[in-house]
Amino acid sequence: MHHHLNARSNLYWRAQAEGFVTPGYNPVTALLEKPSAQRHEARWLEVHEAALLLEAAKSYRAKRGDLAVPYARALLATFLLTGGRQKEVVGLEVEDVGFDRKTITFRPNQWRRLKTATSHRSVPLWPQLEESLREYVFGAAAPPGRLLFPSFRTGQEAMLTDFRKLLNAMAERAGGGEVRSARRCSATPTAPPGFRPSTAARR
Asked: 10 is in which domain, residue-wise?
């Protein structure tokens, strides 16, 4: 409700600026009480939970055609070990993975923009992630086009848009609950050597 009111208020300010309504006319500002946004604390995956997910992804074999992708483990590892946003990760191109430089670079491309100017960045290619990506990129199911994690549902190369069922299937295999985001995971001093998960929230 809160963001709907903000959108309506902005609409009236724009209408004032373009002369569609009289100056000062904005019914939203006349409300005595406005609902406030409810904030809920995120539930974070612990390091051992993230590691269990990655281990489960190694042996994951989809029983349904819409979940059958050759890069399930590599996709999950990229989320967990880079902290990238959803569109940042699914919009990665093969050339964004620098095996020689040991980096992954998030940059704007023809598939998607980045959220802010500072979102253009390079992050470390951690050993666990490099292992998963090398196995995928140089394997029999290597990406055939530019995108690292492509979808061909329409018959043409496009960004993957919905992979929640895939994540939940791997989480179920690992004995966990529904995964809401593969971007939040708390790193603790007890993490295995070389394991640097960024951020995977669970419900």
From this structure: 1-39
Residues 64 and 121 grouped into a single domain: yes
Q: Is 166 helix (H, G, I), strand (E, B) or coil?
A: helix
What tens digit of pLDDT does each residue of 82-126 get? Answer: 888 889 999 999 999 999 999 999 999 999 988 888 889 999 999
Q: Is 80 helix (H, G, I), strand (E, B) or coil?
A: helix
Q: DSSP states of 81-149 as a string?
A: HH---HHHHHT-BGGGEETTTTEEEE---SS---SSGGG-EEEE--HHHHHHHHHHHTSTT--SSSBSS
> The tokens of 27 are what?
């019914």
Q: What Å distances lie between residue 49 and 131, 170, 175, 187, 188, CA to CA?
A: 19, 12, 10, 11, 12
